[in-house]
Design brief:
5-stranded mixed sheet; alpha+beta; about 180 residues; single chain; globular; 5 helices; Beta-Lactamase
């Protein structure tokens, strides 16, 4: 599986071509991260991998929240890592908004944000206002292999710059290849 790393680019003020490149890479990452099956045990393994990767590469001043939810409303994994003020209630609001983007569009919240930027548009111009929606990296769809009807849920990270939130999920998925089809 080739999930690929994002180059460090700023989320705002990038050219439409750069936004398109990030959008395309996010689409490739999503295509390479289809689960053979998904269960509470799989959510635990992915969530724990995200948490461990964050702890390995973070400073004490940083914090994230991780949530893995099915679109039935069932939350399978939830964790806050770090201490206030690095992590707090705002992170959960951002997570809910990123989850809404994945639920509505069936793609990562980073991909949707970069898709709009590549078109020279803002999320707000498309009616995607915070706190209901956040077209920022950190929401990743949970797709099952051989099922293109739509994702069954989302993996969400909030607390780092958006490209880092997204990449933390991608890196964790790459670390659990036995779960992917």
């Amino acid at each position: 599986m080739a999930l690929g790393a994002l180059n460090k680019v700023t989320a705002y003020g990038v050219s439409e071509a750069d936004a398109a490149a990030v959008r395309d890479l996010a689409a490739q990452q999503e295509a390479g991260a289809r689960f053979a099956a998904f269960s509470a045990a799989a959510a635990w393994e992915v969530g724990t991998a995200i948490r461990e990767a964050f702890l390995k590469n973070s400073s004490e001043a940083q914090g994230i929240i991780v949530t893995i939810e099915l679109f039935t409303g069932h939350r399978l994994f939830s964790a806050a890592v770090g201490a206030p003020p690095a992590v707090g209630p705002d992170n959960w609001a951002w997570a809910a908004a990123k989850l809404n983007v994945v639920r509505r569009f069936g793609v990562s919240s980073l991909r949707k944000g970069r898709e709009l930027a590549a078109q020279g548009r803002t999320p707000e111009a498309k009616g995607l206002h915070f706190p209901e929606y956040a077209c920022h990296g950190g929401g990743f769809p949970i797709y099952l292999a051989n099922n293109d009807t739509g994702p069954i849920g989302a993996i969400v990270v909030s607390g780092l710059p958006q490209l880092d939130d997204h990449q933390l999920i991608v890196d964790a998925l790459a670390s659990v290849p036995h779960l992917l089809a």
